[in-house]
Queue: 3 jobs
Job 1
Amino acid sequence: MDINIAKNELIKRGFLDLVIDPQIDLFAEIQKLKKEKNAILLAHYYQETDIQDVADYIGDSLGLAQEAEKTQADIIVFAGVHFMAETAKILNPSKKVLLPDLNAGCSLADSAPTKLFKAFREKHPDHLVISYINCTAEIKALSDIICTSSNAQVIIESIPPEQPIIFAPDKNLGAYLNKKCGRNMLLWNGACMVHEIFSLQKITKLKIRHPQAKLIAHPECEEAILNIADFIGSTTQLLKYSETDGAQQYIVATETGILHQMQLKSPDKSFIPAPPENNCACNDCPHMKLNTLEKIYLCLKYELPELLMDEELRVAAKKPMDKMMSISKQYGLIG
């Protein structure tokens, strides 16, 4: 077999990092490849610290979508999960979109199978469908408007109160928004594995041990956690709050990757990851953590794995994305 074909097959399966020369300076090589190929590396806050440090832009789902939409790069390397790379391709059909590990999926996106959701929507033809961006391209194509945790409240409040709404796929975020906006949206029964397993008992004990610490939580968390939170917000909102708020200690109920940016922004403050129900001290997303510095280097070097999408699906998925971007810009939301 031709050596290049063999390498490409290994990259697609995510295994080629095992044969990288350990003497390679991956930071320098990644920067060199980005410059040579006019590539941009976009990374979600939940990525490992090395990836955040080498990324051109770090953000949450809304910020990453906006950055992907406006980039002049020829190649977009998306250090995140599959639906995020899909979003970049939806917005940039002529650009090459690469995902370091094609197995980097999303438990929340997986909780809304296309056929089941299509049947669910057909049972409620009078409902407008607002879908959280953490969903597949197929679910986006079945939606009227996409939202993120940064802009969901604004988008929902832009819809007349008499208009019935289906909100998918996150039931916890949907329940929080129903309460926040005074709506009665019909919720799809999906959830994020990371945000669903925080332990109320362990967090309560942490708060007793650290009485000055504020609990800050992502709205994907279950209601019991949100009820005792001092602040609830998107990943970016949590970061901004921790930077501007006067407290010196925070218990953070979201994926632990964000703690790196919090510590960089506020080196004099301390951040404690909220513990899950299992025996781990923190709560990592196994899908996000599939991406590594080695895989990003190989992804850039060989321009694989590439995210490809059927054009009819892309166009259908872009319509609700465009509505989200328009509303976000109208209200000055930047992620």
Note: Residues 197 and 278 are 8 Å apart (CA to CA).
Job 2
Amino acid sequence: MSASVQSLPTPECDIDSIAGHVERLRQTFRSGRTRQLDWRRAQLRRLEALVRDNGDALLEALAQDLGKPTLEAWAADIGLVAKEAAEARKRLVRWTRPEKVPTPLNARPGRSRIVREPLGVTLVIAPWNYPVQLLLSPLVGAIAAGNCAVLKPSEVAAHTSGLLARLVPEYLDTDCFQVVEGGVPETTALLAERFDHIFYTGNGRVGRIVMAAAAKHLTPVTLELGGKSPCLVDGTANLQVAARRIAWGKWLNAGQTCIAPDYVLVQRERHDELVDKLRGTIREFYGDDPKQSSDYARVINAQHHRRLAGLLKDAEVAIGGDADEGERYLAPTVITNPAPDAAVMQDEIFGPILPVLAVDNLDEALEFVNQREKPLALYVFSEDSRVEQRVIADTSSGGVCVNGTIWHIGNPHLPFGGVGESGMGAYHGHASFETFSHRKSVLTKPTRSDPKLMYPPYSDFVTRLAKRFL
């Protein structure tokens, strides 16, 4: 696996061309082309074909950038895009149909409805950890809603960025979609332009930069940011199942997942048993030497590897801890009972390190979670429905998965997004269409009758009527 993980120089583009690209897309949008349902369906069909026709090439690029196993890459990065595009195409007529709403007595006779209209020229900025899904999945919503889009793939996943920059113009309407490769200078130049919506996935530090740039043009934003997603394991949990599902969610993509379990809070009397079961699960998943496993990914680059290795200094490593910067390998690692103010407990880990902390009871676990910023995801393992309901009611997070990890992101009928520090706005399925649409209110009144009651001069009788009924 490690032999296939290669690095490329940072991609670049001609920064001076960016303003022209945006203006070209804006002219296309003004022409009305993207508003046509036939155009939207055709582009969604072409997007689905892009990922299906080029599955092997995309798999190879993801292996070169992240050492992704084939199954993980297809299921979590490529296949989701094809499914979302097909789902949007299937439901497009229903989504775009005007929504009838009641008309109050004071506005009658008349009829009221909500019409979805496209926003215009949008910008999608994607991260490196799922560089196919997190660039093209938002694009599904942009297309379905009838928008043009500039796509900014992550320069950190350079092989995937280059491949997508070649494929997008081969499959999609080049007057409506533009890929801009590059790093900070290119992103900065993009953010100086006026867009009608910006969709950013990444960390909170850059999210603030994106939001500040958008504010100059009063551009709405969707921010998918992440955070420290907790996993609560209570005294009734099936530990064998919990260990497998926690391990899968944590070490998928070597922990480089925005909704990976970031730390585990387990009742004290079950702490050691859970750690033992995690140890056995790691061996079951990846063998005695995970470094040799074809099913275990790699850290994206040396800089991130050094950051992660630094988190293990002075840590109580119960499982794993082996590191090889040259191969960007960090073993599936469990550390036990770190201090709440330890570095590993401050920021999102975004790597294959799992802290496991013992707590005395559910109250202590909930207090621990609620003292921190609101996470993108929260996981709870329990066979007691009362515990499940209490955790859902007494915590705030972007989403919750009960007796599982990660799975909620794969349901297109569930909006996916954060709250507070973990982001704003949501997407997937119908939520993506809504994110890239404006809900325009329309009230139509007939002219057959035109009662003069509400026109000046206002009589005392009309005033009394207004006070009573309005």
Note: The chain has a mean pLDDT of 95.
Job 3
Amino acid sequence: MGFNCGIVGLPNVGKSTLFNALTETAQADSANYPFCTIEPNTGRVAVPDERLGRIAAISKSAQVVPTWLEFVDIAGLVRGASKGEGLGNKFLGHIREVAAIVHVLRCFEGGEITHVEDSIDPIRDAETVETELMLADLESLEKRIGPMEKRAKSGDKEAKTLLPLMMRTLAALQDGEPARNVAVSEDEEPAFQALQLITAKPVLYVCNVDEESAADGNALSQRVAEMAAKTGQSCVLVSAAIEAEVAMLGSPEEKAEFLETLGLAETGLARIIRAGYELLDLITYLTSGPKESRAWTIPRGTRAPQAAAVIHTDFEKGFIRAETISYDDFMNCNGEVGAKEAGKMRLEGKDYVVQDGDIMLFRFNV
């Protein structure tokens, strides 16, 4: 599964404006009418990480290469999408391909932008989209359970294992619960992921507020925050209008000065990117030297050989060991040489679980 997040929501809630600002491009057409986004637009964004610049300065690296997260702008869903309303089937297919869902909710009143429901209620909007996604999952499972039952009766071992999981998930969906609420054991997890259910994906709610509410939110965004807390999901505050303005500014200094005038320490997009990274349960390890300092993305819990494979598959095939320095030790010892002299460089083997911020050099032989 790729490290990507699909941006979803009802039409005219600010998805495309947010995507444009997120990727600092004009790939998505921000028009004031439903279905202006017909095909999903994809953009890669750098994950903010102050550690990378710091280790690059110590290593005197010629180049600094961040790690990336991919965002997909998916056209607006509407009530009835699971039955093909609007461009529902196409949109639902695109959502199945992403690893996590960034759900944009309109949390501002007024303005010239029309709302498809003719009123502003982010909780209702969230429930509308969630219901359509659950109905799509329900239909998908119902189609597959019949053939799976036949396979199980014929003695198929895989079907016998999968059928109870599918039945539990179906029951949850029929009770109005998303698939992510189904209790799944560690052994069942691969099979559960293979079902490709939309509501099994983690969700980040993005409250799109007016400029005046960008720092502290408003009554509408507070309701979303409470909903997210109850359902165990994440929530981020952002003003798509402000982010669009920031994206048009040239230098980081200009952007920082503009944000300061609004009482903001950082962009909402930086929070979205970090939250998306956390949503997918990802961590970063680093490599550093005179040529470049680079950040690499891996799922939490990845062992050293598999982490090495992110750089090149040969590194995993011929893995010998990983020379590892924690970020704090690297900084406290002023780099690799100082860390080695202080005995802070560790030799880690195949079973080592890579930690966030580890600075690594892989030894391999192919």
Note: DSSP finds 14 helices and twelve strands in the chain.
